[in-house]
Amino acid sequence: MTSQAGRYGSAAVAALSFVLVAAPLAAQRVPGWGRVAPAGGHQNDPQLLRAEGGPVVPMFEGWYVNEDGSRQLCFGYFNTNTEEVIDIPMGPDNFVEPAEYDGMQPTHFLPVPPGGRRHYCVLSVTVPADWGDRDVVWTLRDQYGQEYTAPGRTRYEMYHLEEGRQDSRESVAPKVRLDRSGTVASGRTPTVFGPLEARVGEPLALLAEVRRDTPFRDEDRQPIGIRWHKHQGPGEVSFSPSESLGTAGNRSIVDADGWNTSPDAWALAVTEAHFSEAGSYTLLLQAYNDSGRRLEPSDLEFFCCWTNVLVDVEVGR
Fold first, then answer.
1. Is the pLDDT of residue 239 over 60?
2. How far is it, in rounded angstroms, from Cα 84 to Cα 300?
3. Rounded to whole angstroms, how far apart are CA atoms 227 and 250?
4. Looking at the 3D structure of the chain, how many domains does it have?
5. What is the rounded CA–CA span in Å between residue 161 and residue 64?
6. Burial, 157: exposed, middle or buried (Cβ in 10 Å; 0-12, 13-18, 19+)?
7. Same-domain check for residues 174 and 270
8. What is the pLDDT of residues 182-217, one digit of tens each?
9. 177 and 138 in one domain?
10. More exposed terminus of the chain, fewer Cβ within 10 Å: N or C?
11. Which domain holds residue 63?
12. Where are the beta strands (DSSP E) in 53-156?
């Protein structure tokens, strides 16, 4: 059970750079296809969205400074389909350069969530403080041969994000622990837990305890939302019980009464994961400050603040 700043992370604002490579005429996009909303924005152009057949576009969201002075580059993705789930294995169609940062990106891409926002900060990379003008580039190629690249860079201040706490919005990232060993996750640079063990056909109980520590504790009644996703793995993963978001994912809501009763209180959310095939999986948990509407995964506070947790699972037959 380790906290690995280089394994994943977070940030905001969108920089999209893509190259279209010899695609079949039928796969050419309608005018306006290249327009993508900024972080936290909605994809208002209806030409961008379709039920299926569209690409997955990697997005550079921004960067922030870690406590040791290193920089964290944050990437998300925009699956332009409202129904189609796309899997792109790591390899020539899904890679990060320089190669030393390859291997931690998602391979399972959920449709655009209700509300029109993309999936935000699902991959992060740690670079040294003196990284300078170099780029970290995430590349995806779709079924039509089109190539989309997102360059991550620290040289522009406009991409500099707040992490973990935003006083102007009285927002701090929730704390998460998956057991009581002492490891607590907080913030978008993921903490990695596991590996857990599971079996095909048998549910795996995922126990997440959450709380939020703020200077305005007495007035803090905002619920904490918890969403589980498959991040990597060979088979299908379903989660239950929770409030269903269709193909966009899965969510549980924890009201303040569960964790705001004392400085030591934690609230428990239990979710079961079901695996269709044996193999090695990584699950992504995002804990965020819920707006209270509860039906929109776009309620996630895109700029600040939420927590990413990765859980490695070995599934046997």
1. yes
2. 22
3. 5
4. 2
5. 5
6. exposed
7. yes
8. 789 998 888 899 999 999 999 999 999 999 887 666
9. no
10. C
11. 2-159
12. 56-65, 71-79, 86-87, 94-97, 108-109, 119-127, 136-141, 147-152
> Domain boundary residue among 159, 181, 204?
159
Cβ–Cβ under 8 Å, residues 138 and 58? yes
Alpha carbon of 136 to those of 18, 58, 208, 254, 317: distances in Å? 14, 12, 32, 36, 38
Instruction: Please name the residue that has the structure tokens 């704390």.
Output: 175
Reported as a single tens digit per residue, the pLDDT across 71-88 is 999 999 988 888 899 999
How far, CA to CA in Å, does 94 sit from each of 104, 169, 200? 11, 36, 27
Q: What is the spatial distance between Cα 221 and Cα 211, in angstroms, rounded to a whole number? A: 11
Nearest alpha carbon to residue 121 among 69, 81, 161: 161
107: tokens are 């391979």
Both 307 and 204 in one domain: the answer is yes
The structure tokens listed for 109 are: 């891409």
Mean confidence (pLDDT) of the chain: 78
User: Which of 159, 186, 203 is the endpoint of a domain?
Assistant: 159
DSSP string covering 121-140: EEEEEEE-TT-TT--EEEEE
Residue 40 shares a structural domain with residue 171: no
Q: Is the dihedral of CA 149, 185, 212, 271 positive or negative?
A: positive
Q: Same domain, yes or no, for 141 and 192? A: no
Q: CATH number of the domain at 291, please.
A: 2.60.40.10
State yes or no: cis peptide before 114, omega within 30 of 0. no
**Cβ-based neighbour number of residue 221 at 10 Å:** 10
In this structure, the answer to whether residues 210 and 259 fall within a common structural domain is yes
Question: Other C-beta atoms within 10 Å of 131: how many?
Answer: 18
Label residue 4 by pLDDT band (50, 70, 90): very low
Closest alpha carbon to 295 in 127, 114, 105, 160: 114
- Point out which residues pair with 279 in neighbouring strands: 315
